[in-house]
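Quick board copy: two proteins, each given as sequence then tokens.
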Amino acid sequence: MDYKKEIDIILNEDIDNFSKKIKIIAVLTSAIKENLNLTPVVVGGQAVEFYTGGGYATMDVDMVCETSTKKIGEILEKLGFYRDNKYWILDSNKLDLAVETPSGPLAGADDKLMELEIGQHTAYFIGIEDIIIDRLNAYVHWNEKWQEEWILGMMVTNYEDIDWEYLNKKAYQERVNDSLKRMVDKTEKIIKFM
């Protein structure tokens, strides 16, 4: 399959940049799976952007891969990316896209992954519960209070899909359960007035 050609077609589609990024992520996932027999998982800011429907904007995509970045770099290079420090930058004037491929392990449960099928490709995102925990950790332990907006955004948008038992258990393990409770209370008030 000519993944580079697929990326070029996506870049020329008349769709928003958020949709272009998601489609390109799915193509990259297929290329990595086909060549290295492993499944990269989107984490970090791009996962927040996905779960907020594009509300949170990020320029880079973190894809956790359990292999050397050199092997992945060889694939990305063939697909039109070039290396700039820790990032692989898509060589295009149509979309700003930087990919980082930290090695695993994934800080989340494999059985909570969100699989997003796009045509003949599938993108994998860290589970909603695990990205909420990630952002709660930043909120509590690194004092990143600005994370609250995005935690609430993810919780409001995905309220019905969240495994609350799992989320509460993880929050307790990570010592962020008090903040989670406050966020849930705020989320439920927001939903009540929607």
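And the next:
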Amino acid sequence: MAGKPIIKVAALCGSLRKGSYNRGLLRSAIEISKESIDGMQIEYVEVSHLPMINTDLEVDGKYPSAVEEFRQKILRADSVFFASPEYNYSVSPVLKNAIDWASRPPNVWAGKAAAVVSAGGDLGGGRAQYHLRQSGVYLDLHFINKPELMVRAFQPPAKFDQEGNLIDPQVKENLKKVLLALHDFSLRLVGRA
């Protein structure tokens, strides 16, 4: 009898800041998946080293090595987990750059399940989430609809500590619900449910 299927998740953070609350959400997601979600492996995929997208860097159908390595990690994943800050009602430039590189032919986002969480000001990064979902239509990414997690990081009680680690138990529980929904949707999408 075969073991329980493993869903491989590529996790991307749209913030470069060391103490980023969105990076804290990703760290917590990885911890939660290891501790309490059987059949889910989350790999943090760094995007800070990617060159700014420039098709002049594509030579004879090949991408720069950092881009190709990144694309392969996305390709091998069953689903994608984004943690995105909001910049001017959208995602950050570093995340948009990564999205654009992975969408170059062949589009390695296509057909994957996805989830997005965010931490920010009054709306908790919600506008960035909705903009990312809109881009996902063209990319053929299939976002879970519910639950949503938009952390209002500056409203009491404290959600994160000084290092950007998630400390709020309710937010952790809500994050776990997002991960479980992504896991279940991923299984259905890849035909392993």
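Board note added afterward: Strands lie at 7-13, 40-44, 79-83, 113-120, 142-143, 149-152.
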